[in-house]
Fold this sequence. Notes:
The chain has about 450 residues and is α+β, with helices and mostly antiparallel strands. It folds into two domains: about 80-150 and about 305-445, MetI-like (MetI-like fold, Orthogonal Bundle); about 180-295, no CATH class. The chain is about 45% helix and about 10% strand. It contains 13 helices and ten strands. It is elongated and about 115 Å long.
Amino acid sequence: MSAVTAGGAAGPTPPADKRKSVTGTRKAVAAAFLLPALVLLGALVVYPIGYSLQRSFFDQSGSGFAGLGNYREIFTDDTILTAVKNNAIWVVVAPTLATALGLIFAVLTERVRWGTAFKLVVFMPMAISMLAAGIIFRLVYEQDPERGVANAVWVGVHDTFEGSAGFPKAHPLPAHPLKAAGGGAFVTKEPVTATAPVRLPLVGVAPAKMPSDARPAKTPVPGDGRITGTAWLDFTKGGGGRPNTIDPKELGLKGITVEAVKDGTVVAEARAGADGTFTLPAEAEGALLRLPAENFREPYNGVNWLGPNLVTPAIIGSYVWMWAGFAMVLIAAGLASVPRELLEAARVDGANEWQVFRKVTVPLLAPVLAVVLVTLMINVLKIFDLVFIIAPGSSQDDANVLALQLYRSSFGTDAHPGLGSAIAVLLLLLVLPVMFFNIRRMRREGRR
């Protein structure tokens, strides 16, 4: 065979073994360039995997062969089983929610003028590290409504429909004409009469917590056979007041409920005014006056988000807050490549927007949705930072996941490297099927 030279003359073709590779260099040179990367891959990936696999078959000290004992402990220890169960919840719930929200955001913001600004805001949490996000949501989920944003909103909504008690810590002194009646209520020691106004003094309410429109308490004038009285805060700011006596600077307990009880039955009820005075009908003559427990119940402090029952959903919520923007950006990129004529054709054929979305948009976005879903599934299988930071010590066992248990078993106070290595191998085995599915999908897409 011959080859044409630059001058047009034919020359001999070089032998096949002398030809250069596609890269323009000899294979030995290409291998030399790849060698540093292969060495790093072996040192940082292959060797740790092999060593972890070997170490998982040994006991805590590493000197005795344990066989499958460490793997058996994974599926018999209650703490590790909780981690496995929570990991299953994470894999099913978190990627699904993040992908669904990303799809909704991408579709709804496609036609609005400020869609780009909205996408920027939703994507911004991706710039925050897991550590910072964990600290943020540890504060968001604080039980105290004055510190935790979630409970501040929840308590505000709750109190809009169901008001809280006005005097949660109020109580009488031993010298007062009131005594405990059980269940948090208080009752007068003697039956009341219409001839003398009833005095219902209480203490234990901070002046700053009193109603803003409460006025100085006063003694009502009795008459017409009705029962009159005053409920007030028997405390003078700065001192100098007398117990069981209405002093000039003492305020009425506005809104407190007073019941007249005869033979265990409530025969009349009244609420105190701004100056603490109240009036009951003549039927209350000879009854005992009771201040029901509803006056003194503790205020609603919201939901214990980081308690044993809600800690995992709460942490999943913080994860979705971070990764919904990632899903939205990828899905929006896929949505931009969807042929618009197909959407318009569906609308011309009479399909409404929901049918276009469900039967045209979503099927066309299926490859992109698969990429997002698989990526997030791999991500949540190794979730660690958020759980470690957000979950308090009292409920960390309830929020436990495999990556956290791997850390605790390998580096905790009672470290068991063999068990930690077995958990690491289990995590690898869980990730491999998802990775193989992703690789097959990408190859299948490449052949189209």
